[in-house]
Each structure stands twice: as structure tokens, then as C-alpha cells.
């Protein structure tokens, strides 16, 4: 089946090779209604993966990009949460753990409005979805309006944000995560302190499917995995209630920065549909104030996680603390300090191929192990947008060029060694291909206040309808 493209195919040989490679990954990983991050390691639909994938997929097929987000949000729970995994019933249970029979969402989450006929996980992931929705709409507003795309997505996104700022505000004015997987940076050293209070389940009580597809030296340890399973089990057995006693609760700067950026996008979506943007702008401003008040560390020159158990900042310096550069209303002195920190010896912006996921000089830095040091393309994509938003166009251009180079050279790897850019994790990874495609299709242009595209695709020079091959 062919579908129209709304971005011009590159003509330069190197760009054309990258474009074709990224397109091939997205087409191969497409499953009819959504895209898997990786056919082997991640054979279902993941929440923030789908948001990033939709951002890149719009350059191949706007209809598919819209469908990606529509499919994901159809699995939304009645309380507003968008689950971090939507399971494909055609995939064998043994292909991934924790599988649907572990989460038991339709039963354990029934009181909270979990879908009856779609199995999901019971936890969430970072809220990139409104930003992705707005970018997809802006790419082809005419098609979006004809299909009623924003009309369908807006109430789902509003309910999602209400959940995050309601039930998941555990008293600090920010949204909290109740499992490391919810923050996206699953295995970050930032979780070591809070996780130390969690008793792991016995290793013999479950089987890790991830080690069938990835080297153990690049994956979480058995001890950490046992703690992840304990947290998920306890949350499930409590009916996925956020009012239940929680042994892990953290305010994460990346999650909250993405919520703020998406709240600005939701304001744009609301205004596009003739509604009042002001409530969303006020909420974004309140969240920004709380982010700075609760998570900013002038001494460290970056944002830190707050462990809500002892109610104190976690000293581990992960790349999550740089992502608030994406926030439009961030105070100028905070943004400038973040850039200095990113360019310093701890994160190497401008000197290393990509920004690592954890402080290069940190005691727990590991250049190969999942989220404990390797560089990830989605985090660097967010930083590129943040740099451009706050006027650091030279730094943004340099990072963009490096990301494009390493995405193709690594075979669109899940993550890479931050020093050598050697591929780590799985290859042909969905968001690496998607975000490479997005950077390739969108030339270096200043981002507007709300973080959206500078102009719809139809108004860009050279944009024209094409047919996918």
C-alpha cells in the first residue's frame, strides 16, 4: 500500500542514504496500526516511543503518524493514564516480560477504567504525546482537520494531563513516578538510592526475556530487575491505586519538563479548536515554577530528582536534569547554566559525539549499560530543541549534525557509547530512525515559543506530495 509523503526526499547522496535507512526501519517496524520499537526486544507498542516515532513518521506518512497516536490513546484508562505498553495479542507471552498475564490490567485495573478488551501495563511513561500530536497536526493541518485528528485527540490528552497533575501530584506540585520504568530512563543511577529500600523478588520467580536479545553487560542487573518486578507486583496488587502506600515515588525533571512542553502544546491544540488556551498556559507556568523551586540545584548547575520518601534531592547527575532546557518559560539564568553544564566535562556537549545519559565523571558511570552512561538519540533530540529554543543555535546545529552522522553509522542503534558512538543495545530502533528522519527533514530553523515546528510542511520550500515506495 502506498501513502502520500509531505516532505521532500533528500537529493544529497549521504542524506538520501540516511533517509532511506530510517524509512526502512519505520516501515519494517510498522504493524498496521502502530510501530514496535524493535521487533525482537520490544515487540509491542510503547508509549513515549510511539510519540517520538510519530514525530518522525509524519515525514513518511501523516496518516500513519496520526494512527500511531490514535491507537495508543485508545488504550487509555478511565482515570486518564496512558499505559506504557499496549500489548499485541498476536505476540506470544514468552516473547516479552513482564507480559500481559503479569500486569492483568483488565482485571487488576478494572476499578480505574482499564480497557476490557485491550491488555496494557499498569504504569505510565513520560508525557510527550501532546507535543507529538501538535507537531503531527502542524505538518499537514488540512489533512488533520479533514480527519478530525485534533478533535479526537484533545480530550484524551486533557484527561492524561489531568491524571498526571491530579492523582500523580503527591504533594509537591509536580507529577511523580512510582516506578523507574515510568521515567523512561529505566536503569539510571538516579534510582539507586530510592531503589535500595525495595526488596527484590527472587530471581527464580520470573524469566527475563530481554537477555535473549541483548548482552547482559548492556542490560540492567538481576538485582535491579528484581526490584523493578517487586514494585510492579506491589502496584498491581494494590489495584494500581496511586493512593496506596508506595515504596518508590520520585519527582523527575525530564518527566515534568516534557509535561510542561506538552501543556504548552495542549494550549496550542485547544486554541486551534477554538477553545481557551489560558488554563493550559497557567498550568504550564505553575509547573515551571514548581520545577525550579523543587528540582533546581544551583550548586550542581542542573536539575535533580527528588526522592519523596525522605523528601530530598538525589545527588546523581543524569541527563534528565538537562532536559528542562526544553521548557519555554525557563528563567534565562537557569537555561544559560544548563547549557554551561551540558558543555562541561560531565556531559561533553560539543566535544563528544552525543550527550551521555549520566555524568561522565559520576561514580556509577558505565558507557555500555542501559541508561547508566550510553547516549540516547531521543534525549539528544530533546536537547537539540531546547538549545534552539533558548537561542543556542550553534550548539544546536552541531548536535544535529552529530546525531545525523551517528544515527546512520550505528545502524540506528538503541543507544551508543558516548565516547566512541559504537552501537549498543538493539539495532534498527524505532525512535532513533524516526528522530533522525525528523532532523534530516527539518533544516536548522529557530523553534518558536511553544516548541512546535517553525512552519507547516505545506509552507516550507520544496515541500510537495510524494508517494512511498
List the total number of helices.
16
Return the string of H and E elements. EHEHHEHHHHHHHEHHEEEEHHHEEHE
Kindly report how far apart the N and C termini lie.
Answer: 9 Å
Number of strands: 11
Helix content: 40-55%
- Sheet-strand content, in percent, reads under 5%
> Mean pLDDT, nearest integer?
93
Describe the biggest sheet? 3 strands, antiparallel
Estimated structural class = mainly alpha
Strand order across the largest sheet: 4-7-8
> Radius of gyration over alpha carbons?
20 Å
Write the layout of secondary structure elements.
Elements: E1 4-5, H1 13-29, E2 45-46, H2 47-57, H3 62-73, E3 85-86, H4 100-103, H5 105-108, H6 129-139, H7 141-147, H8 149-165, H9 192-195, H10 222-237, E4 250-251, H11 253-272, H12 278-295, E5 296-297, E6 302-303, E7 306-307, E8 312-313, H13 332-343, H14 377-389, H15 393-409, E9 415-416, E10 423-424, H16 430-441, E11 466-467
Antiparallel strand pairs: 1-11, 2-3, 4-7, 5-6, 7-8, 9-10
Task: Characterise the protein shown here.
This protein is mainly alpha-helical and 469 residues long. The protein contains 16 helices and eleven strands. Strands 4-7-8 form a three-stranded antiparallel sheet. Strands 1-11 form a two-stranded antiparallel sheet. Mean pLDDT is 93; it is low at 1-6, 444-451 and 454-469.
Amino acid at each position: 500500500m502506498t501513502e502520500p509523503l509531505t516532505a521532500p526526499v533528500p537529493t544529497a547522496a549521504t542524506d538520501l542514504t540516511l533517509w532511506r535507512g530510517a524509512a526502512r526501519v519505520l516501515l519494517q517496524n510498522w504493524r498496521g496500526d502502530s510501530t514496535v520499537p524493535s521487533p525482537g526486544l520490544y515487540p509491542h507498542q510503547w508509549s513515549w516511543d510511539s510519540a517520538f516515532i510519530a514525530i518522525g513518521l509524519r515525514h513518511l506518512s501523516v496518516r500513519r503518524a496520526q494512527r500511531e497516536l490514535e491507537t495508543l490513546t485508545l488504550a487509555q484508562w478511565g482515570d486518564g493514564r496512558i499505559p506504557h505498553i499496549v500489548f499485541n495479542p498476536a505476540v506470544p507471552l514468552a516473547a516479552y516480560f513482564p507480559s500481559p498475564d503479569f500486569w492483568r490490567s483488565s482485571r487488576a485495573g478494572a476499578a480505574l477504567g482499564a480497557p476490557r478488551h485491550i491488555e496494557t501495563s499498569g504504569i505510565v511513561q513520560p508525557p510527550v504525546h501532546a507535543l507529538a500530536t501538535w507537531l503531527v497536526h502542524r505538518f499537514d493541518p488540512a489533512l488533520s482537520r479533514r480527519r478530525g485528528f485534533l478533535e479526537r485527540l484533545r480530550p484524551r490528552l486533557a484527561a492524561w494531563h489531568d491524571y498526571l497533575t491530579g492523582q500523580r501530584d503527591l504533594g509537591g506540585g509536580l507529577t511523580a513516578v512510582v516506578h523507574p520504568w515510568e521515567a523512561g530512563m529505566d536503569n539510571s543511577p538516579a534510582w539507586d538510592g530510592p531503589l535500595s529500600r525495595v526488596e527484590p523478588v527472587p530471581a527464580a520467580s520470573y524469566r527475563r526475556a530481554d537477555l535473549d536479545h541483548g548482552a547482559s553487560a548492556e542490560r540492567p542487573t538481576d538485582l535491579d530487575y528484581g526490584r523493578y518486578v517487586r514494585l510492579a507486583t506491589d502496584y498491581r496488587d494494590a489495584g494500581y491505586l496511586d493512593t496506596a502506600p508506595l515504596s518508590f515515588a520520585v519527582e523527575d525533571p525530564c518527566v515534568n519538563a516534557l509535561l510542561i512542553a506538552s501543556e504548552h502544546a495542549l494550549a496550542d491544540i485547544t486554541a486551534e479548536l477554538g477553545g481557551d488556551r489560558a488554563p493550559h498556559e497557567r498550568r504550564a507556568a505553575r509547573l515551571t515554577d514548581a520545577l525550579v523551586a523543587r528540582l533546581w540545584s544551583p550548586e550542581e548547575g542542573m536539575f535533580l530528582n527528588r526522592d519523596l520518601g525522605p523528601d530530598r534531592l538525589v545527588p546523581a547527575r543524569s541527563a534528565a536534569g538537562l532536559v528542562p532546557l526544553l521548557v519555554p518559560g525557563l528563567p534565562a539564568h537557569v537555561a544559560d547554566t544548563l547549557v554551561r553544564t551540558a558543555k562541561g566535562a560531565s556531559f561533553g556537549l560539543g566535544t563528544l559525539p552525543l550527550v551521555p545519559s549520566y555524568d561522565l565523571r559520576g561514580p556509577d558511570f558505565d558507557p555500555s549499560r542501559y541508561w547508566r552512561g550510553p547516549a540516547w538519540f531521543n534525549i539528544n533530540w530533546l536537547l537539540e530543541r531546547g538549545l534552539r529554543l533558548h537561542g543556542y543555535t550553534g550548539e544546536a546545529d552541531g548536535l544535529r549534525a552529530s546525531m545525523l552522522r551517528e544515527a546512520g553509522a550505528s545502524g540506528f542503534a538503541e543507544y551508543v557509547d558516548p565516547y566512541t558512538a559504537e552501537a549498543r543495545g538493539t539495532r534498527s530502533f524505532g525512535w532513533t530512525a524516526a528522530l533522525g528522519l525528523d532532523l534530516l527533514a527539518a533544516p536548522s530553523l529557530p523553534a518558536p515559543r511553544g516548541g512546535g515546528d517553525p512552519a507547516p510542511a505545506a509552507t516550507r520550500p520544496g515541500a510537495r506530495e510524494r508517494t512511498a515506495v
